[in-house]
Amino acid sequence: MNDPYKENAILSGVALLSALMLLLVMQLLQGCGPKKANPPAVTTIYADTTRTRLVHRAEASSAAITIIHERTQKTVTSYERSVKKYDSIRVELPEIVPGQ
Q1: Rounded to the nearest 10 degrees, how much is the dihedral formed by the CA atoms of 59, 64, 65, 68?
Q2: Which residue of 23, 48, 68, 89 has the fewest CB atoms within a 10 Å radius of its CB?
Q3: What's the rounded Cα separation, in Å, for the pair 29 and 37?
């Protein structure tokens, strides 16, 4: 066994096997340690989008009704003023004498 290439190949193989065995032993030793605590469960809160959407629609409808009521009230008030003014007008017609 005087071939230097063969000796280098054998030494390289032994070194590689030793390194692999060392890595295997390190992995086994790490696996025997205390286990890591599980992270706390993440709580996800889902917004009730249907309910929220309905609440927004109700608020928008309420606002629209308020606006319509105010506009209607202005119209009714204006109409009532016009009726009072019209009813207060007095027109005197001349008397018609028959035969003239």
Answers
A1: 170
A2: 89
A3: 18
